[in-house]
Amino acid sequence: MYIGEVAKRTGLSVKAIRLYEARGLITAPPRQGRYRVYNKSHVEVLLLIVEAKALGATLAELKDALIYNNGTLDWSRVHGFLAEIKNKLLTQQSDILKRIDAIERCISTLDSCPHIQHA
Q: What is the pLDDT of residues 17-68, one digit of tens each?
């Protein structure tokens, strides 16, 4: 499929797809005359990039995670990368819950203070 179809399937701009190719995040698709011809695996990797970026991954992190062996993505490395993102998110979740608890304690203290007028 041509780049326009890939853009529709992934929600990425043509410019973004070319950038990811230039940065080595996806393999260079074969050409048919002047046109690049993408396949299903290109779309899968691009969708992975979209999801990883939505989870906060940077292009530099993706570059380290998306390693190709003979043109095939090392999915076990991707698995490890996703596990790292999950662990970071779980740590952030724990930190947020601790902050919420601290705020609740402050609110409780304020609620029990007779000198404060509540809204």
A: 999 999 999 999 999 999 999 999 999 999 999 999 999 899 999 999 999 9
Model confidence, pTM: 0.79
SS (H, E, C) 34-96: CEECCCHHHHHHHHHHHHHHHCCCCHHHHHHHCCEECCEECHHHHHHHHHHHHHHHHHHHHHH
Contact 46, 20 (CB under 8 A): yes
8-state DSSP, 23: T
CB atoms within 10 A of CB 36: 17
- C-alpha span between 3 and 78 (Å, rounded): 24
Q: Strand, coil or helix: what is 32?
A: strand
3-111 CATH: 1.10.1660.10
What pLDDT is attached to residue 114? 78
Spans of all domains in the chain: 3-111
